[in-house]
Amino acid sequence: MSAQPISSMPRSSMPDITYNFAYLDEQTKRMIRRAILKAIAVPGYQVPFAAREMPMPYGWGTGGVQVTAAVLGPQDVLKVIDQGADDTTNAVAIRGFFEKTARVATTTATAEATVIQTRHRIPETALNENQILVYQVPIPEPLRFLEPRETETRQLHALAEYGLMHVKLYEDIARHGHIATTYAYPVEVAGRYVMDPSPIPKFDNPKMDDCPALQLFGAGREKRIYAIPPHTRVRSLDFEDHPFKVQHFAKPCALCAATGVYLDEVILDDKGGRMFVCSDTDYCNTRQAQGHVGELGVPAEDAA
Amino acid sequence: MSEQPLLIAEGLGKNYGARLGCRDVSLEVYPGEVLAVVGESGSGKSTLLGLLSTELVPTAGRVSYRLRDGRMADLSTLSAAERRLLMRTDWGLIRQNPADGLRMAVSAGGNVGERLMAVGWRHYGQIRDEALDWLAKVEIAGDRIDDDPRAFSGGMRQRLQIARNLVTRPRLVFMDEPTGGLDVSVQARLLDLIRGLVSEMGLAVIIVTHDLAVARLLSHRLVVMRQGRVIETGLTDQVLDDPREPYTQLLVSSVLAA
Q1: Among residues A64, A84, A211, A284, which one is catalytic?
Q2: Where are the domains of chain A?
Q3: Which value does ipTM take for this structure?
């Protein structure tokens, strides 16, 4: 068949596909909502659920997509971010998926969104009580690489035996002189369960504590859902003489001069040139529009 | 030695399907006492150790243990949480193969510190000091603290396993052939070390071994097993020097200058 634009193909050969709202059928969404309710009732506990095959590969956010589909309503405004950016492949694909299957409004502005699906970041703009943050989780079990037996890790969670988690941090200090874990940094939720916060930088860990928004975590391949209800105590594990610390950046964002935000390194040339810019693109763009200019930035009116 | 036993086993038995593991074993261990269980391969020694340390579930009989508060508790009635707490504070378990008892990918310091962290130590400096202290006690140089046990010799691994178990100052230690697979000179030093620690800490020890020399060096009392049953018990010297049962006589006479 010759390369013919899809829109000009005869209508008869392309049957209209109508999806159920947000792709999943209602029974599946009920099943996922039940798991979510249980996860909210037991903060930090990994609730098994019957994850479905989704029209995307594992590792691309199948867990997050199912959780989003289950909580999404027609009035919701969806934002999808990947490594803080709204315009990367994963974010664009998932946003397009829900535009097509749920016909919900989408946005890139954190403040306007009611449901935010995220991979690897928590937005810089503080969340509010009308928002739900959905995380994509590759490996939900924080003890996985210390104790490979799933039966044993369940026992450890059930009996709250978390000494092993500190063995990992001990090893970090013994080898590197400080706690070298920088992402997926283990947290204790509501004084009980130790939880993997998904691979967000530890910079974002303090944002989970006492957060007014509901935080849901979906792991599609591992078939687990867990949650942090609003205003829950989330504590990053540490030692008394090696307290938890977040990353610090020497210079502000090169484009918007923001400080106290998480920055990505961007290589500029093959002579060692580099700049550090906000990983949260929405936050950076908003600041640039407000007239903030970093050392490599272009003033907003000149760019236009 | 106080008069009240630390651990009592009554009519202990274990079947693996139709096969017999051990049958009708009763024994008592007192605080500070070293009890050796000897017998040839397949006589039910390791099964007995598994039953006593709650790793196996008995088909008959029961094991009771005196908790730190002086209460005598039937181990099968303890909750899983209580049993595990007992395992990592009040008990130690030294396995024949150190790779089974150690975390091979974790540094020596982490191996020793794991129990401390499990009982709530959260100060890195203190954990490290305690680990160094224990490595010195088991004759491992302090500068090996950040090496993982894969870089250690067999004897060092076994000593590390001992440090890892004794760091919470347990009252009862189970040892399953602790000198198995080590060469003779290393065995002798390890036995010296164990004997020193046992008397210094007042440990009660149940040691399973097929090596009568080990039993003679370490233990106060001896239990001889054959085909899953206890056939003779008594003071170590008494049993070894003046064995009563024909099988024990055979066992003793088959050892070169035991």
Answers
A1: A284
A2: 26-236, 248-299
A3: 0.87
